[in-house]
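Figure 2 data, in text form.
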Amino acid sequence: MSASRQFAIVTGASTGIGFELAKCCARNGFDLLIAADEPEIEIAATEVRSLGASVQAVQADLSTTEAVDKLYEASKQIGRPVDALLANAGRGLGRAFLN
């Protein structure tokens, strides 16, 4: 990862909105730490890297404390301040919001 680029963490980045957010970050000069709870996060990382960003992927279900700790540790190992956090992890259940 290059210290001259900004650094972002994007959760839920394997598909959908999170994946698109990660690509937008890459196109706008960010290196990335991306996370999702499925193996497709590695495929997403490869595609985002093709946009010129340095990307580290973490497969983790962020609804658990252990997974949040795993993502935090990955961020610490990178050793850079986080310029942007795009917290997109989660799934819609197809029910009314108040339910």
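Caption note: The longest helix spans residues 65-78.
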